[in-house]
Design brief:
This protein is α+β, with helices and mostly antiparallel strands and 547 residues long. It is built from 16 helices and 24 strands. The strands form 6 sheets. Strands 1, 20, 21, 22, 23 and 24 form a 6-stranded mixed β-sheet that branches. Strands 12, 13, 14, 15, 16 and 19 form a 6-stranded mixed β-sheet that branches. It binds zinc ion.
């Protein structure tokens, strides 16, 4: 069934190659020789991008070192069996640090590091009995500092003795402070604080209710003196999922989080549930996105002992939906769940936002307002950020290796989008900058490109200031250039104008005025304009206007 395709522009023969266009040469060589087959091959291989591929995934994925921040394994030798804490504390090198009674806060040194003191001093000045599991818990031997025994002591904030023993640094929130500790200290404090948090809840035997179960095994177990029941520190596994769809990743914002702060979807594992099923359930409950549990793959994990989680990181790919010739991720919906918002972010948008000079730090700890249109992710030490960053890096470098031409890189997705042009042709500027300072409107031209011998057509949209007929000429010229050998045909589907408008509530929207449009059964020009512009501008609302 032939669709109406008015205003066709047929690309000229493949002989017309500019020999000086250095960037084009490699691609031109390939396409000239193999024509459409090559374009098809490139398109399909991107769908099987290295990082998402089952075969290469684990090998090519860098070990997320930063995620190991709280992994005690390299720093602490675990105590085996029952230990005599009192005897350990009398060792000459034995040290301790101090936490609040619930394990939520830790005493820091003046320079922001952990305040260690010798256990001897603490015993003398604070009267700590290191054999009493209520006052002090054995954390382990610090393998990175001569195997010294390390204890955590429980102190009451404001106690004068703290300053005498640990100095003037003061108490800080464990989670916030650990993000800046040295790796070894972060792991040691995390374990100590988590043990204290657990111990603070063991006031009664859970079986018979007898008060004060006794701490044994160096703080790894409590045993009831009356009934003999034992309890161990519990661990809560939490599944964290990098859910992707082509070049998009799904991120969500919890209702309690500041504006523009997003992270991967995560949730606690229920009883009688696998981690993979947990990923699928969370995606469905929180964002109404269907994930096949069989497609969920383990990537890496991170201890998150604040107070007792283990973050287990997975990845899962969701099949796209068709929007005319485009493949787009299914639309997420947040209902009465934990999320205030869930949306897809294009890899190019995230790549520009994760650069060190542009990235915003976690606003939960800095109180910095993230401006509209920008995004903040969890800090460098969080597994969620590591997973997102590895995915973005892998996608970007794969496209660089694979393609020499920016236009070509986007052809392969089935929708090629000249994002660089959104920033007025300046590659170093990120897309949204144009809209930050937008005083005049941008004109845009959207063309559908048909490649001979291939059913699917990519779509190009170009937005730029200036004359719409000039933009149109440029786009068609680029389609011809890229499509050489593939015998590309470009149909102008829509032209129009976009303008940024600031709303009363501080949000910004894009007003779209269509100057011309050709829609038919399989091609909704307006929906496609919005879908493509949202790649670069995920936070903007789009509104069509007449005037
Ligand atoms: Zn009991």
């Amino acid at each position: 069934m032939a669709r109406t395709r008015p205003r066709a522009v047929v690309a000229r023969s493949s002989r017309q190659i500019d020999p000086h266009a250095r960037d084009d040469r490699a691609f031109t060589r390939r396409t000239r020789d193999r024509g459409v087959m090559e374009l098809c091959a490139v398109r399909w291989s991107v769908a099987r991008c290295a990082w998402t591929s089952r075969a290469r995934g684990r090998r090519s994925c860098q070990h997320p070192r930063a995620a190991l921040r709280y992994d005690a394994h390299p720093y602490l030798s675990a105590p085996s069996g029952d230990v005599d804490a009192r005897a350990l504390a009398t060792e000459k090198s034995a040290v301790c640090f101090a936490c609040s009674g619930d394990g939520g806060r830790v005493v820091c040194a003046r320079d922001g590091g952990v305040a260690y003191a010798s256990s001897e001093t603490a015993a003398a000045a604070l009267g700590v009995d290191f054999g009493d599991g209520d006052a002090a818990l054995y954390v382990g031997r610090d393998a990175s500092r001569g195997n010294r025994a390390v204890f955590v002591v429980r102190v009451r904030e404001g106690d004068d003795g703290i300053r005498t023993v640990f100095g003037e640094g003061g108490m800080r929130d464990v989670k916030t402070a650990s993000a800046t500790f040295e790796l070894a200290d972060a792991a040691i404090v995390a374990r100590g604080a988590a043990l204290v948090a657990w111990r603070s809840k063991q006031k009664f035997c859970r079986r018979c209710g007898t008060p004060g179960p006794k701490v044994v095994a160096g703080g790894r177990k409590v045993t009831c003196g009356a009934c003999g029941a034992s309890e161990y520190p519990e661990l809560m596994p939490c599944a964290l999922a990098l859910i992707t769809c082509g070049n998009y990743v799904l991120l969500g914002r919890n209702k309690r989080w500041p504006k523009n702060f997003y992270s991967l979807l995560a949730g606690f594992v229920e009883r009688s549930e696998s981690l993979e099923a947990c990923v699928a359930r969370e995606a469905l409950e929180e964002a109404n996105i269907v994930v096949d549990p069989a497609s969920v793959e383990y990537v890496a994990c991170q201890p998150w002992p604040f107070p007792n989680q283990l973050m287990v990181g997975f990845k899962a790919a969701v099949p796209p939906e068709r929007l005319g010739p485009l493949k787009m991720p299914p639309v997420p919906q947040t209902k009465d769940g934990e999320l205030a918002d869930a949306r897809w972010f294009h890899v190019d948008y995230l790549a520009s936002r994760l650069s060190p000079e542009r990235a915003f730090s976690d606003p939960r700890s800095t109180d910095v307002d993230i401006p509209f249109g920008e995004i903040a992710l969890p800090g460098e030490h969080a597994l969620a950020r590591v997973l997102v960053k590895n995915w973005v890096d892998e996608k970007v470098s794969y496209r660089r290796r694979r393609c020499d031409d920016r236009l070509v890189t986007t052809v392969v997705e089935g929708s090629f989008f000249t994002e660089c042009t959104l920033s007025s042709g300046d590659d170093d500027q990120a897309d949204a900058f144009v809209f930050d300072n937008l005083t005049e409107s941008l004109q845009f031209v959207m063309v559908e490109v048909l490649l001979a011998q291939e059913g699917q057509a990519p779509v190009v949209i170009r937005a730029a200031p200036g004359d719409v007929s000039k933009i149109r000429e440029d786009v068609i010229a680029e389609v011809e250039r890229v499509g050489q050998g593939a015998r590309a045909v470009a149909y102008v589907r829509a032209t129009g104008r976009i303008k940024c408008k600031r709303e009363m509530d501080g949000t910004q929207g894009i007003q779209v005025k269509m100057l011309s449009e050709v829609s038919d059964d399989g091609f909704d020009a307006r929906a496609i304009v919005v879908a493509m512009l949202q790649k670069a501008l995920p936070f903007y609302n789009f509104k069509f206007v007449d005037g």
